[in-house]
């Protein structure tokens, strides 16, 4: 019986990004399903905090857009609508502890810190607001475990390897979301590091259906969601929709200017709703691919980064699509022609490829918590 144990989840929960909010929701929900009390610590001070100057600049920009850059103003308006939907989701579905500072006092409130998923261990955390102190829970005197954090790329810059070694030295159990990253960190630290799935895959399909209104009509929508606007991918979606008699809907990610008229605002729920009711999904987003799989949709994943790009984050999708034997669905600008010839997806196959990984991931988390309880 775990009821007395209070767990603090440390993860991103402020960026207006579907994956960010839904992975936080999934980890919290899974932990509460197995009977532990899990609370997400607000990371506002380490991710998006705004000073008065920031707010003034934002307002001035907004006015300039309104007066001179109509298209950019439209983009901003859609973002503001989306932001409200994110806030609603946060209030409704996430259990957040906003009283995070000073960090040391969290030790009195919680028995275990779970450094959760998303790119919370991206090298970028070492320069902004000293965020690494938060995301690696360096303040914790209580036990710490890592569940599927990502570094966001395939390697760790040599000059900060020593920081990673130091940061993970006192974790009771360690895992990351990508096999390549687990291997690199094992080499750096000499510690055993497991590889587990993104927390969104820990919840049963039914749980994700509870968040959307189910519609009987199989809709005629082609959904396009690009985290990086790419004209070749956009044109491909327009063309494919036309050839196959589908209506194109484009979800606009927050903060990205999209020069297209089909864009809609969306929060996490609207995002799930659109994926769950679309006929075909085209995306360069890791989490949009996961939810296409969860809702058993036909999809293709676009390569968002060029191979030689230092910030290349394709590793996440590479990893996932290899697990489910769908590497042929990972498309770059040169291979757009192959989309028409892709076979229909067989979800009984995909589910069985994933099930061992899901069981392994659950087992890792359950055991890690048990280990801490018994210490």
Overview of the molecule:
This protein has 375 residues and is of the alpha/beta class. Helices cover 43% and strands 12% of the residues. The protein contains 14 helices and 13 strands. The protein has helices spanning 18-33, 44-47, 52-68, 70-93, 106-109, 132-135, 161-167, 179-189, 205-209, 231-243, 268-277, 286-294, 314-323, 347-374, and strands at 6-10, 37-41, 96-97, 112-115, 144-146, 175-176, 194-195, 221-225, 247-251, 263-264, 280-283, 298-302, 330-331. A 6-stranded parallel β-sheet has the order 10-9-8-11-12-13, sandwiched between helices. Strand 6 (175-176), helix 8 (179-189) and strand 7 form a beta-alpha-beta unit. Helix 3 (52-68) packs across helix 4 (70-93). The two termini are 15 Å apart. The model has no long low-confidence stretch (mean pLDDT 91).
Q: What are the SSEs and their pairings?
A:
Layout: E1 6-10, H1 18-33, E2 37-41, H2 44-47, H3 52-68, H4 70-93, E3 96-97, H5 106-109, E4 112-115, H6 132-135, E5 144-146, H7 161-167, E6 175-176, H8 179-189, E7 194-195, H9 205-209, E8 221-225, H10 231-243, E9 247-251, E10 263-264, H11 268-277, E11 280-283, H12 286-294, E12 298-302, H13 314-323, E13 330-331, H14 347-374
Order of helices and strands: EHEHHHEHEHEHEHEHEHEEHEHEHEH
Helix content, binned percent = 40-55%
The helix count comes to 14
Largest sheet: 6 strands, parallel
Total strand segments: 13
Overall outline: globular
Mean pLDDT: 91
Quaternary: single chain
Poorly predicted runs of 5 or more residues: none
- The span between the termini is 15 Å
The neighbouring-strand order within the major sheet is: 10-9-8-11-12-13
Question: Rounded to an integer, what's the Rg over CA atoms?
Answer: 21 Å
Counting helices, strands and paired strands, the structural category is: alpha/beta
Strand content: 5-15%
């Amino acid at each position: 019986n775990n009821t007395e144990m209070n767990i603090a989840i440390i993860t991103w929960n402020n960026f207006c990004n579907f994956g960010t909010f839904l992975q936080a929701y999934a980890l919290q929900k899974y932990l509460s399903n197995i009977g532990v009390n899990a609370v997400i610590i607000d990371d506002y001070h380490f991710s998006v905090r705004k000073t008065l100057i920031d707010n003034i600049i934002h307002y001035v920009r907004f006015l300039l857009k309104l007066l001179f850059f109509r298209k950019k103003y439209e983009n901003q308006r859609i973002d503001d609508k989306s932001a409200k939907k994110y806030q609603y989701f946060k209030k409704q579905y996430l259990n957040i502890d906003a009283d995070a500072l000073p960090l040391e006092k969290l030790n009195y409130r919680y028995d275990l810190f779970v450094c959760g998923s998303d790119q919370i261990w991206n090298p970028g955390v070492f320069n902004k607001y000293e965020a690494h102190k938060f995301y690696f829970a360096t303040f914790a005197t209580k036990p710490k475990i890592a569940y599927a954090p990502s570094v966001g790329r395939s390697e760790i810059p040599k000059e900060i390897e020593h920081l990673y070694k130091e940061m993970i030295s006192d974790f009771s159990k360690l895992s990351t979301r990508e096999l390549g990253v687990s291997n690199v960190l094992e080499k750096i630290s000499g510690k055993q590091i497991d590889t587990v799935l993104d927390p969104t895959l820990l919840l049963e399909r039914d749980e994700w259906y509870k968040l959307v209104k189910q519609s009987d009509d199989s809709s005629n929508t082609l959904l396009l969601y690009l985290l990086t606007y790419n004209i070749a991918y956009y044109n491909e979606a327009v063309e494919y929709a036309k050839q196959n008699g589908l209506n194109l809907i484009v979800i606009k990610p927050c903060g990205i200017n999209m020069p297209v008229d089909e864009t809609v605002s969306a929060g996490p729920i609207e995002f799930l709703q659109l994926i769950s009711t679309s006929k075909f999904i085209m995306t360069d987003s890791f989490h949009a691919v996961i939810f296409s799989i969860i809702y058993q949709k036909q999809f293709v994943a676009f390569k968002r980064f060029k191979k030689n790009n230092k910030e290349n984050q394709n590793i996440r999708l590479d990893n996932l699509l290899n697990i489910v034997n769908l590497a042929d669905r990972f498309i770059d600008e040169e291979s757009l022609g192959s989309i028409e010839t892709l076979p229909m997806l067989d979800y009984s196959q995909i589910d069985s490829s994933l099930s061992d990984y899901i069981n392994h991931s659950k087992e890792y988390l359950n055991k890690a918590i048990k280990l801490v309880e018994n210490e």
